[in-house]
């Protein structure tokens, strides 16, 4: 900061006849400039953030209290007061969409991803893969689903899950495990399992990568100490691996919850919210309200509610990541 | 000095970026008017249209047209652009969307242009003008016409002893059941997209069935809008389609399919594992050209009765922001003329042009049915958008197919939803 002050002082032109007063004035001006400088430097970034994040958030909030169709310009909007929120909370479909979002879309897939992700990360980190010299190949293969665009992934899974010609059904029938194909995406008893399978397949690599990074940071000395205490592999996992991974697991859970809760693509492309309204989630309800029902205000109200729920998770996430940071320090 | 240079660069960048927002609209360069015509059909269905545009450009060096494809149809995108002062000069619109875009901030009313420079044929000689004229203002010119015809694999019908295509809905159910039973469920008698997606193609046969029985989901009675079908009649309609699945005449896998041209349906028609379905002309041609088997069309059940099937198609509108409305109108006139349809393989909405074109024998179902088809105009005008009615209906039908609801409950839910929607 001293250097910055000197630089500013050196470059400032002398304006006063009294040399002492002039030096004081220059010093004060330099301090003011120095105080302003961080704000000036931050200004472009703040401007971009305001334009990209603050303005849409504020506008969406305003929109939630307005009546406007996608065919009107914003100036044509009329005030609706709290009608959009009343309509949302009195709509019987909202409850089931909220349950589907929280349980089937988010809860189940996050838990399954965590369990499978942890298992895969441990396997990929194991010495045996290193010994067989296939660790690199295995890690690359695990990443493949993540490289597939979600739209392509869902389209491929829809084909594979088709009740008549899908490869999964044909295989099960040819193995004698089924008498006839099961239309996984068309019946209520199977549709959520099928959708969740698609989500887990596509999103699992992220969990694996993060957990593998966590595994690599565990000091080997801890495993060696556990072995000296005659701990078996399972005990090592429970008493060394899991406690060390706990902060990482917390962050993974929160990140995947936030990313999944708002997800629209998987359900919409796989089922369109059906059969009937069986797989309708808040994100698809938002889209239907805003762009099928031509009710941008109603859609914005759903978005506000979803944002409020996610804000809770975001706060928890920020606190958890701070805790992880402190632990690492 | 450095600061002022950076500030100037940023300002120039912003101005250039904002300038790009209106770049898609046509302009004028060196006396040549450049127009953008946006259409939404898949690129493989508009080769003939591109040829027609190329012909126009060769014959009219002063008015050059660029064909822009934005597929699938997205009227909201066009509305956003038009509301912000940009967008293409000429826009293709689905008939059902003209009412949504009929706004002086989006489309240019065409009455003055039509009066000063008339079309080659009278406006009233076009089909579906009730969809393009709203409150006595003309917002678009009907351009192409289509409908859903019954598509069938004649070899499969022969194999199972079906001599004639079904002319009633009851005949269709019987024939489909026979085929399914006699093939031990290997062949679907009638396959159709039955998902609950908002654009689900089951919307068409549901309405055909209703209309053929004299019912409507929505009816206008003077200034009032009401429902035009009782809950018991609507429940019987739901039962009709639901029994297609419960009887095995249609595979339950179809409950997950939204598009009439889905590969599962197209492939099943071609390989003979589905005997009958329905398609619009463009999809039929695509399936037919990819199929080794012979495929034919026939009118839908009740399709030769006036008002029992829908008249779909595209209209042409002019963006209110265009700087060259007269030139855009010249292009619209050309596109609706017989010359365009010499290369563009669509059914023209002009009745005179429609009677002049040669149609392959396999498409006889369309030519027989089209004169009896009516547009969805009777559903348009209430406070409930057509797309919202469609979503409500297909969701409830699909809920019954999948066992979430019974037909009576679903019918009452549909009627309650419509009654609350049409009243505003």
TrEMBL record, chain B:
The keyword Signal applies. It comes from the Bacteria. It comes from Labedella endophytica. Belongs to the bacterial solute-binding protein 1 family. PANTHER family: ABC TRANSPORTER PERIPLASMIC-BINDING PROTEIN YCJN-RELATED, ARABINOSE-BINDING PROTEIN-RELATED. This is Extracellular solute-binding protein. Keywords: Signal, Transport. The keyword Transport applies.
């Amino acid at each position: 900061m001293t250097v910055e002050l000197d630089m500013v002082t050196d470059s400032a032109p002398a304006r006063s006849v009294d040399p002492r007063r002039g030096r004081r004035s220059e010093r004060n001006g330099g301090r003011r400039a120095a105080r302003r400088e961080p704000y000036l430097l931050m200004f472009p970034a703040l401007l971009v953030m305001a334009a990209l994040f603050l303005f849409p958030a504020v506008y969406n909030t305003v929109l939630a209290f307005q009546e406007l169709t996608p065919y009107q310009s914003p100036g044509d909007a009329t005030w609706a007061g709290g009608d959009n929120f009343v309509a949302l909370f009195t709509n019987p479909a909202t409850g089931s969409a909220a349950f589907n979002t929280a349980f089937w879309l988010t809860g189940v897939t996050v838990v399954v991803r965590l369990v499978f992700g942890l298992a895969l990360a441990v396997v990929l980190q194991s010495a045996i893969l290193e010994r067989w010299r296939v660790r690199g190949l295995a890690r690359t293969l695990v990443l493949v689903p993540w490289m597939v665009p979600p739209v392509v992934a869902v389209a491929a899974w829809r084909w594979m899950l088709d009740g008549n010609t899908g490869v999964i059904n044909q295989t099960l029938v040819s193995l004698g495990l089924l008498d006839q194909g099961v239309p996984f995406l068309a019946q209520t008893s199977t549709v959520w399992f099928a959708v969740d399978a698609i989500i887990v397949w596509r999103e699992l690599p992220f969990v694996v990568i993060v957990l593998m990074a966590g595994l690599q940071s565990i000091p080997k000395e801890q495993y060696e100490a556990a072995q000296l205490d005659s701990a078996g592999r399972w005990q090592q996992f429970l008493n060394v691996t899991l406690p060390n991974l706990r902060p990482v697991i917390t962050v993974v859970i929160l990140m995947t919850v936030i990313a999944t809760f708002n997800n629209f693509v998987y359900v919409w492309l796989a089922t369109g919210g059906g059969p009937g309204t069986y797989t309708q989630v808040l994100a698809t309800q938002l889209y239907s309200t805003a762009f099928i029902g031509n009710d941008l205000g109603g859609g914005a109200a759903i978005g506000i509610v979803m944002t409020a729920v996610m804000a809770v998770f975001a706060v928890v996430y920020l606190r958890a990541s701070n805790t992880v940071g402190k632990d690492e320090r | 000095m450095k600061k002022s240079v950076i500030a100037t660069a940023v300002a120039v960048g912003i101005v250039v970026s904002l300038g790009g927002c209106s770049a898609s609209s046509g302009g004028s360069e060196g006396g040549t008017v450049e127009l953008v015509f946006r259409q939404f059909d898949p690129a493989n269905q508009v080769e003939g249209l591109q040829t027609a545009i190329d012909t126009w450009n060769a014959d009219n060096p002063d008015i050059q047209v660029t064909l822009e494809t934005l597929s699938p149809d997205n009227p909201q995108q066009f509305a956003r652009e038009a509301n912000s002062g940009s967008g293409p000069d000429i826009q293709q619109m689905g008939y059902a969307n003209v009412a949504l875009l009929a706004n002086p901030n989006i489309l240019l009313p065409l009455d003055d242009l039509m009066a000063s420079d008339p079309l080659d044929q009278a406006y009233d000689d076009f089909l579906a003008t009730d969809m393009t004229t709203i409150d006595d203002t003309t917002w678009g010119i009907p351009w192409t016409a289509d409908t859903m015809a019954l598509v069938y694999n004649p070899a499969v019908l022969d194999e199972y002893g079906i001599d004639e295509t079904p002319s009633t809905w009851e005949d269709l159910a019987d024939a489909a059941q026979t085929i399914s039973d006699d093939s031990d469920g290997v062949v679907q008698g009638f396959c159709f997209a039955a998902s609950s997606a908002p654009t689900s193609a089951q919307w068409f046969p549901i309405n055909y069935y209703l209309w053929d029985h004299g019912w409507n989901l929505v009816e206008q009675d003077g200034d009032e809008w009401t429902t035009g079908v009782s809950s018991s009649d609507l429940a019987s309609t739901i039962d009709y389609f639901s029994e297609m699945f419960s009887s095995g005449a249609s595979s339950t896998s179809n409950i997950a399919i939204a598009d009439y041209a889905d590969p599962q349906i197209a492939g099943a028609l071609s390989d003979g594992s589905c005997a009958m379905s329905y398609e619009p002309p463009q999809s039929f041609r695509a399936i037919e050209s990819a199929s080794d088997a012979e495929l034919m069309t026939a009118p839908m059940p009740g399709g030769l009765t006036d008002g029992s099937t829908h008249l779909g198609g595209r209209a042409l509108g002019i963006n209110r922001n265009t700087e060259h409305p007269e030139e855009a109108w010249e292009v619209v006139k050309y596109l609706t003329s017989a010359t365009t349809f010499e290369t563009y393989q669509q059914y023209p909405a002009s009745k005179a042009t429609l009677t002049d074109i040669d149609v392959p024998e396999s498409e006889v179902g369309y030519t027989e049915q089209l004169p009896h088809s009516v547009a969805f105009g009777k559903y348009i005008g209430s406070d409930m958008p057509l797309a919202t009615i469609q979503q409500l209906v297909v969701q409830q039908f699909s809920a019954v197919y999948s066992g979430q609801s019974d037909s009576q409950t679903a019918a009452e839910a549909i009627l309650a939803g419509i009654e609350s929607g049409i009243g505003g």
